[in-house]
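FORM 7B: Structural annotation worksheet

SECTION A. Query
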Amino acid sequence: MTPQEAYSLALKEGPSDNTREKACQDPKYAYYYAWFIDKGPFSSTREGACKDPSCVYLYARDIDKGPRDDTREAACKDPQWAYSYASYVDKCPRDDTRKAACKDPIAAYYYAKGVDKSFRMDTYSAISKDSTFLSLYDNWLFNRIKQKV
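SECTION B. Predicted structure
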């Protein structure tokens, strides 16, 4: 039985350990299983979702409805999802999510602007690797300073 087949069977017949175990072999179906079948968090569905940064971000946001160390660590495997996790799950800056976001200049730009909401040397250094986003960041900083004067 494939993860999709296990998920489909559980939709028809309800949750079971067998269909949950099979569905959790695919992060997307682990998330769907928790959302539509279990209708809440379950350790095996969370573990399955942790195999993919996008799925674990959605799991933390929609199912756990808050941050956890294991889901944050999994989301931090991808800079864009680290930014999203900080912005929409943690709802505050953290060193671990910032460090992960700084592996990509675009994610670092959005992190600096949307999560830190202020200048930091580490995000600035990461953003400086992309001239387009560095220009956007410099303009954003200039406008923030201008508004305060």
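SECTION C. Observations
The longest helix spans residues 131-148. Residues 1-53 form one domain.

SECTION D. Sign-off
Analyst initials: ____
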